[in-house]
Amino acid sequence: MTLDVLAAGILSGGLYALIGLGISLVFGVLGLMNLAHGELVIAGAYLASLLVVDSGWDPLLALPLAMAGVALIAYPLQRYLLTPLLRGDKSAPLVGTFGLSLLAQALFQGVFGTHPKSLPASYADSGISVLGLRIQTIYLIAFALTTVLCAATHLVLTRTRAGSAVRAASADPATAAVLGINVSTVYAMTFAGAAALAAAGGVLTGVAQSFTPTSGLPLLLTGMAVMALAGIGSVGGVLLAGIALGVLQSASVQLFGGGMRDVVVYLAFFLVLAVRPQGLFRKAATG
Amino acid sequence: MIRSTSRRIHALGAAALLAATAGCAGNASSSSGGKNDDGGPIVIGTSISLSGTTVLNQIRDGYLLAVQKVNAEGGLEVGGKKRKVELKVLDNRSDTNTMVQQVRSLALTDHVVGLLGSCCQQNIDMQGQADALKVPLVMGALPVELLPKGKGYTWDSFQSLADGAKDFYTVAAGAKTDKKTLIVTNNDAQGISTGKLWGATGKKAGFTIAATKAVPTGTTDFSDVIKAGKSSHAQVLIAAMAPPDCFAMWKQMKALAYKPKVAVGVQCAQTPGWGSLGKLGDGTLVQLNWSDTAGLPETNLIVSKYGKKYTNLTDLGSVALGLHEATILLDAIKSAGSTDADAINKALAKSTTVSAQGPVKFVDNKSVTPTFIGQWEGGAIKQVWPAKGGSPLASLTGLG
Lengths: 287, 400
Known about the structure:
CATH superfamily of the largest domain in chain B: Response regulator
Radius of gyration of chain B: 23 Å
Radius of gyration of chain A: 18 Å
Number of strands of chain B: 17
Helix content of chain A: over 70%
CATH topology of the largest domain in chain B: Rossmann fold
Low-confidence stretches of chain B: 1-26, 28-34
Strand content of chain B: 15-25%
Structural class of chain A: mainly alpha
CATH class of chain A: Mainly Alpha
Order of helices and strands of chain B: HEHEEEHEHEEHEHEHEHEEHHHEEEEE
Largest sheet of chain B: 6 strands, parallel
Low-confidence stretches of chain A: none
Strand content of chain A: under 5%
Largest sheet of chain A: 2 strands, antiparallel
Number of domains of chain B: 2
Number of helices of chain A: 11
CATH architecture of chain A: Orthogonal Bundle
Mean pLDDT of chain B: 90
Number of strands of chain A: 2
CATH class of the largest domain in chain B: Alpha Beta
Distance between the termini of chain B: 63 Å
Number of helices of chain B: 11
Helix content of chain B: 40-55%
Shape of chain B: elongated
Oligomer: heterodimer
Distance between the termini of chain A: 31 Å
Shape of chain A: globular
């Protein structure tokens, strides 16, 4: 494998990790497979586009607002719709998030139209040379931001009272409730936090690539692949899994051509599920 | 809690039912039903994708424009008296199974005398239904080479892929390049055949195909493609991919300093969203089915009616396409002087309609419309080919 293939894989893996982090967080804490996660990613991109395309903001300045905006939308969804569904039939929340996914796509189409959009920025199509390698600046930024957000998530979960409450609610919601933890609020805060991370991924995706109302599904699949490789409950593992996925994709393109990219990735995905269902990095990192 | 959950599931179900009802209500855009031999309005219909992954509001608007135009003149003369035309529009939500059901419903319940198409693969799938139901179907948005041989009830008036490729190379020959060409397509069957067609046409036009790459839809890392372009020194780029793929590739090409001198985004640069690339999109060539500067019939009508709603050439071109298709069908009903499906089908075979995309002459159920080459500049497309009505070719500044 050449150095540029490795670099491209590692850097694109940063973006994959950011998209996978939210799914992993929600599944790890709430036990909820959020099928609307891709739409939360795209919601971040569309919210940012209101500031970037319509008002001329830099996407990186719009990013925190998009994160906050999507988190504000996500909180009541979890608190008043999904958390009650979690207490019922196991399939109800899954169907609920699928319904939200379809609803969000229809809303995006109605409000923003169906044409692809992109978030313009000087670093979207610029490159820098590092050790003789040409690297797309936005992927470098995405990788750095993902690292920061992963570290922040890890610290919040392990070093704060809120993190303790999240871990308690995740381990045993009934006992946590007896101890005075408002589990419904913890769930909603976790979902909102995951949505904010998704929104960050959306803004970066919008800068590096493009987005449409139906772009969420492939992003959801990418996130699920990252989560499966990482294992549940490992923030550091998510970052490593994203990188592994990126490198695997780049290497497969180099070795077998573009046509085999997805085949190789999903083959690895199924192999990990079959051989090591707890994920590749569960023991390697704590979180 | 179980009761509460159950209530919420019911609420979700009710919401879904409401949404479905709203969707059905949206379909009833202009219809009172009625058979076509009772002296009431002549009913034609379409099952078209107005939601889901493909939204064809512009083509629908073109259909409506044609019907409004005919009705403003008192309707179509059939059986010695003028009758108004009613267009029944059903949204198939980008779903082929829904389309099949809707086409059958239009034919068997609404007794439409003719059908209008949707787009792309759906048009191919619709052909089988039209043939089976023996209802004439007029369509566009499907390159004539891709229309399978059917049983004679489907009529396709659209561009030829071969003409589009040939016209591009004519334009590219006018630019100063080494004629080395990189072709990138999606790796599905249509992408591969497009690559072969453009490769063969390029060779005939004196270009050298330096590299050919096929990538899956949804690719975001084009580093191997860019490497191939750079190492083969290809100065002409042909990218025939889904729009999001081209967006990612254009950004990556600029970042990794691959600088072709001529580039066309087949399919992908046609989207008005290309303008959101800003300066990066400037100079990219695009195939068009219509141009407001080409002197085509009905241009003033289209621009005056829809110029404010649709501000870009590709959207207005889709309105023109819808107007063109519907006019062909309405003219055939008029020529047949009857609402009999076979009489209309025979009239279609002899069609000499001149409409928004030029003159019609069907050979093997296909009538080729002209191809135009446009170029993105400052968020808008201007025609650069044919020279008549076009602007001079500018350089590819976005990637330069």
